[in-house]
Amino acid sequence: MLSALVARTADGWHVLVRHEPHDKKADAFLIGPSGVSAVVICEHPPDDATAQILLRQAEQRCAGIRSSRGQVLARTAVHLVAILPGAHDARSDGLYRALAEKDIDKLFRRDTTHLERREVEGIAEQARDRLPGYLPLRVSTTERTAEPAGLLDVEDLTEDQLAAAQQRSFESWMTFLHPQQQAVVTRNYNGPARISGPAGTGKTVVALHRLRHLARRSSGPLLFTTFVRTLPLVHQQSFHRLAPELGDRVEFTNLHAWARGFLSSRNKEVNLDSRRITTAFSLAWTVHRESLTDLEPTHSYWETEIDRVIKGRGLRTLEDYVKVTRKGRGVRLDSGQRERVWRLYQTYQHNLHDRGLHDYNDVLGMALTELRREPLETPYAAVVVDEVQDITLLGLRMLNELAGDGANRLLLVGDGQQQVYSGGWRLSDAGIPVQGRGEILRVNYRNRAKVLEFAQRFDATNRVDDLDGAAGVALRDVESANTGGTTRSWQGPELELPDALSAALRISPVPPGQTALIVFKQRDLDCVASILRKADVPFLDLKHYQGDDDGKVKIGTVHRAKGLDFQAVLVVQFGQDDAGGEAPEDEARELRGRQHLVAATRARDFLWWGVVESPER
Ligand SMILES: Nc1ncnc2c1ncn2[C@@H]1O[C@H](COP(=O)(O)OP(=O)(O)OP(=O)(O)O)[C@@H](O)[C@H]1O
């Protein structure tokens, strides 16, 4: 059995085998481009207590292994694998991956590799010192046949390949973490906790490792959720690679889908129809337009007021609305003016009710009420919320109720600087106390230096909030972990945009499948989609993106792109009125700055920024 593992050393894997068998220690350690695995070979699958001991031992033995960049081997990156020689089939149990002998090849699958050769060599060398009692075994190098699978020899690389190899190290987060990231992954929080920090500092990476850490120490389901529909699916793919043994124990779903599924499980009917909701609002606007246009003529400003302030904060009475601080809203309203807005809200509510409709806030409100009436039968061991800055206060209250009280149950991850919707709150407004349990990550790992420098120009000088009213860290103050990168700018009339985009795709060193084209409004998306179609460039709307590399350029608005990253990003900004142009100028400018910052920080290596001079279409 071990010989099957040792045979892989010809392909650049390292195997360290115990001198003497011991039922509470791993039989071998396997180190390769997929990371580090402690391997036990046993007739029967280990029970939980034994698996926990094996895992802890392996984690402790490997603790302190470092990468050449000074990162530490994540405790959560050590896998436990049980090989069952007699079994026909084996099921993973959450603590370890179980494999029948015939399935051993799964350990070496190329799609699980994420470390470069020098990183593997570095780990193996340090592991030898940390694993007394284990002997490194190798097949003789003369038996070496093929080039190591998934590994590259630096001397043999052309410049292009070298660039490609550098990209791959972006996945090393599956094995190596910054010491601060590592600390947050395993820290014990005696209540709700919060991770904030500027774009690209690894907040999601930490959240995924933490999920694995918590799953290893608990039973029952765990939940990862965000506001954006497709984001959880993309992160789910990464998580399955990080923690294949956990199968579906961690649920990845967006907030509203979760709420709807939950309500349906309680036989509560939800009637959510975006088109009809818009009509309900438009009809209300027709009635109240005259009383509000002197304050602000664009109806979407008031639509946002209802969505993010009145309903989003769960306000029930005019008295509450008069008292509330409308953080981030540009139009100041005295109590008489708020009364006028309230009437618009009441008519809108009336219209929804008449049509038997629910809007997005209603769904969250209903789920909150239902959870308060009767909590989940099987509570989540932990709830992790990503991109929390764009969730409404009502959504936060629901999540807090869902997670329940207790240590390590609720983790909120976000960055106030990346808020792409208007309206603001503090976590304490939702009754979520995080004092003493707030972490700020400060090292940007995603963006190459030139890209980061470009993105920092969108960093407003305003004070950055840590999501709870205290000072946070802005993108301009982030430490950069990468060098290099390329940025290009273009400005011209719309007529020349097709040629400019084609040229951008041509000069980009990155394949189309790793490239995203980001705009700021839905109508701009239609425009760039039509350009790509005419140029025969295959593309996929980010609405349907689930993390696969299908060779197509991904296109979408910044609202869809947030939380994601791509090797190359092309941004098309139409004129100066891109973001939330409906709001009064200060608010619009701030929102626009944040949206630009989010768009620019999606790029890892190559960023092209195009400004279309004439917005007329
Ligand atoms: N420890 C690490 N080692 C190597 N790369 C890392 C590490 N942590 C993060 N990264 C890289 O940085 C990228 C960004 O990480 P992540 O998405 O977790 O950041 P974020 O703070 O959530 O970003 P944003 O707020 O912009 O969505 C990852 O895709 C990964 O490539």
Automatic annotation (TrEMBL):
Organism: Allokutzneria oryzae
Residues that span the membrane, as ranges: none
Metal-binding among keywords: no
Superkingdom classification of source: Bacteria
Domain UvrD-like helicase ATP-binding positions: 176-461
Binding sites annotated in the UniProt record for ATP: 197-204
Assigned keywords, A-Z: ATP-binding, Helicase, Hydrolase, Nucleotide-binding
Descriptive protein name: UvrD-helicase domain-containing protein
Gene3D superfamilies: 1.10.10.160, P-loop containing nucleotide triphosphate hydrolases
